[in-house]
Amino acid sequence: LGLWLPKSLINVAQWFFDPGIVVMHFPRAGYSKTSKPLLALTIDDSPALEFDDRPADVCCTEAIRKILGRYEARATWFVIGSNVCDDRHRLLRSLVAEGHELGNHGMYDRPAWVLKREEFMKDVASAQAVIESCGGGQRRWFRPGHAAFTP
Predict the structure, then answer these.
(1) At what angle do helices 60-70 and 88-97 cross, to 10 degrees?
(2) Which is nearest to 104 in space by CA: 149, 71, 55?
(3) pLDDT for 65-103, tens place per residue?
(4) What region, left, alpha or beta, does residue 148 occupy, with left being phi > 0 and alpha being psi -120 to 50 degrees?
(5) pLDDT at 80
(6) Which of residues 121 and 2 earns the better pLDDT score?
(7) Which residue among 37, 49, 99, 104 is buried most deeply as judged by most CB within 10 Å?
(8) What is the C-alpha separation between 132 and 40, in angstroms, rounded?
């Protein structure tokens, strides 16, 4: 599902958030130090478990990793902490070793806006601990559950 909003509306929404923490838009084209076109690729609900409970070496997360590797492409994988169990730890460690980023998507796939502040903070911290146990830990990206939260 794509959503287009006028830039002026996005700029208004950004006023409600610290731009050092939540970015609603990206700098103008030409901001990059390279002449190549840039694309930010993000993978949601990683590693696949809710809809793909096959072993990690044949699951869709592994298939995507292999395709990206063929093209020397990297992505940011938004990790749901509770999906990282059994052989999924090894899979995430391999993603980090190959230069992919791990972003925090909370411990469980649930709407962030329904959580009380303390529960929200615990959810994010628990998922971050899982990410760090897999070699990630940049604390650079967070995607709230169900893609929305209240200011």
Answers:
(1) 20
(2) 149
(3) 999 999 899 999 999 999 998 888 999 999 999 999 999
(4) beta
(5) 92
(6) 121
(7) 104
(8) 22
Residue 47: cis peptide before it, omega within 30 degrees of 0: yes
CA torsion sign, 22 to 25 to 28 to 30? positive
Q: How far apart, in Å, are the Cα atoms of 127 and each of 38, 39, 79, 105?
A: 29, 26, 8, 7
Tokens of 93: 């460690």
- Distances in whole angstroms, Cα of residue 133 to Cα of each of 69, 85, 86, 88, 137: 23, 12, 13, 12, 8
The full 3-state SS of the chain, as one line of letters, equals CCCCCCHHHHHHHHCCCCCCCCCCCCCCCCCCCCCCCCCCCEEEEECCCCCCCCCCCCCHHHHHHHHHHHCCCCCEEEECHHHCCCCHHHHHHHHHHCCCEEEECCCCCCCHHHCCHHHHHHHHHHHHHHHHHCCCCCCCCECCHHHCCCC
Instruction: Give the residue from 111, 136, 140 showing the smallest Cα distance to 123.
Output: 111
* Separation between Cα atoms, residue 64 and residue 51, nearest integer Å: 15
> Alpha-carbon dihedral of residues 141, 10, 38, 136, nearest 10 degrees?
0
